[in-house]
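Hello Y.,

Per our agreement to keep a running log of every chain we model this quarter, I'm adding this entry. I've kept the format consistent with earlier entries: sequence first, then predicted structure.
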Amino acid sequence: MNIRHRITMLVVLSFVAISAIGGYAVFQSRGNASEVKTVTEGIVPSTLASSDLVAQLKDVQLATMNLIAAPDQNIAQQAQEQLTAGKARLQAGLDYQLKHADSATQRGLIQEAHDSLQDYFSSIDDAARFKLAGKNDLANATFYAGVSQYQVNLQQNIQALRVEKSRSTDAATAALNQNLSRTVTTLSGVTLITVLALFTMGILLYRQITRPISRMQHMMSEIATSQDFTRRVPVDQQDEIGKSIIAFNTMIAKIEENSILLKQKTNDIQTMLQNIPQGILTLTEGGLIHHEYSAHLESILETRDIAGRTLPDLVFSDTTLGSDILSQIDAAVGSCIGEDVMNYEFNEHLLVGEIEKRMPDGRVKILDLNWSPITDDADTVVRLILCVRDVTELRKLAAEANEQKRELEIIGEILAVSQDKFHEFIAGAIKFVDENEQLIREHAKHDSETIAQLFRNMHTIKGNARTYGLHNLTNIVHEAEQTYDALRKPNPDIAWDPASLREELAGVRAAIDRYARINEVSLGRKGPGRRGSIERYLMVEKAQIQETLHRLETVNTGNLHELIAARNAVHKILRLLGTEEIEETLAGLLESLPSLADELGKETPLVKIVDNGYVVRNQASGTLKNVFMHLFRNSMDHGLESPDERVALGKPVAGTIRLAMNVVDKQLQLRMSDDGRGLALGRIRERALDKGLIEADAALSDEEIARLIFRPGFSTAAKVTEVSGRGVGMDAVQSFIKREGGQITLRFLDEEVGADFRRFETVVCLPENIAIAVDAGAGSAATAAASVAEAKPAQQNSVAGA
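Predicted structure for the entry above:
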């Protein structure tokens, strides 16, 4: 018989025994319950009620005496009512006793009590009538003659009934107790027999089940403790225990097999830790480093004292990390180990990924740190693993690669600019840097005008660099510009420090020199190129030279008119040496407009240039570029509307910028305008009020308001961008023009006085010798007179800037 059958038999027998005991207990409990119910719900209440009859009878007696002794009719009437109620209660009590009478004696006594009650109350009624009729003597005689006798009889009947009820209750209670005692004795005996039977079967089962299981458990514990997985538990019986032992032996065989594999993998891991070219360690609870770590970690950290130490002591000592960061790392590690992996995900950003560590000999190593959690099946972090790599050489190579990449980018930027334009830009930038350096050396204290000039020069370098797409240089110059911008504020964020300013300026010069060196050394583009200084090159078309030489060779020296014509031709060629068309001067600026338009979210404007037959000398090209670099940028940023606004106003999506050049009143005039919204006079006045340049109640004309844009640091831009908002544009333009002995004015082109926006043109006037008429006729008196006539109406509505 196997264990299952044995246990089943024990369970069945136990169930039968318990069922028998329970059945007998239920049977007996039902009989006893009936007896208990009879006693508690019938006999006992009836006995108690018989005692109440005695009390009720005494109440009736008292009411009768009150009736007989009543001094007046009211009290007698009340006593009569009490007697009526008392009679009803006695009648109900006797009825209840008759209902629960359990013997003939009790029923006989109750019947006698009924008869006595009738006679008793009949006598009381007679006495009451005499009393109510005022016959007190008859009432008293009736009471003492009849009522008292019947009262004694009734009292004796009720007393005998109460005694009989008490005797019946005692007999029922004794019988009930005897039945309960017999039931308890029987149940105890049956239960004891059942327990003895179950105990006997338990002993048998222990010998058959528990002892083999204990022996099996003992041997299993020995195997587990000794870790000797080659041992097996012997199988003595082919029941469930035997099958369990077979299963255990099979499991031990699997464990033995897996143990061999685990040892192999452990050896592999140890071999890996000894040979992997990477530092690996694990952090246990408390932030201590586990004793197992990769051998390469000793080479990286240059120490063998690793196990049991903490990260701040081993890895983060002699680093550039501050105390705040170190405390964050320590808190993050402490909040991860022993907690849910979610804590690691929340705090991972606090674990640094790279450090610079100083070695004992002074060398600095750059170490890359890679963190990972080791979790159990419940996703609880039991350890943190840290991989340490020495990336010092890698970072050096990366820096060299970045430097090479940056040099390639610079080469690309330089090649996108013609040699002569690049040479001219470098020369102009160096000039501005030299001027800034001289200004810094000459001023040991804070000076607003000096700072404004420093800012203008640096802003011009940046603008020209952006124009030619020299982005690397633009970024460096922008930092210096930011410093000047901070200094020119009413309450500067930084102090005037000439040494620091010269150092920063030296960085700008180094960047410019780098561009120049790459241009000359790497690209071999030395000097200004073929369009350089007029002292070395004749900038004139070959066809004109050949035509002039042919005319000189074939001229008839005997013909005065031919000699004069040949002389005039040669004179014209010589006059054009060192000149260029204005469109060619501004070519680099015009080529940069598409990128500027993209930056502003606008369409590239159409630029119309009318030179009226004039060219400009090369010496003025730098000034013209600096001036119109700012003017074109202002026009595109402030003047021309966005595409949506232009469409809403019925204008073409792309704006138009016009530039006309002419010589008027012995001055070169360059008039620039656009088809944008016009000059924002309302915005200019608002900004002037904010800056305290004008009073709120000042009555200024449109011309006076317009002149405010030439103030240093003035700008109507809503925010500072790479294009505008620094208040340097028109201030810088005016400064460049004044250096060349010229002036700048704004001329309104409409009659809408007082409007928020007014159409205008910017007129730049420079010395006449800057311009050369290609055709001598262009400078004739008739042409000059026409130009003067065209300009005179506008002069009545002009705003002088310089």
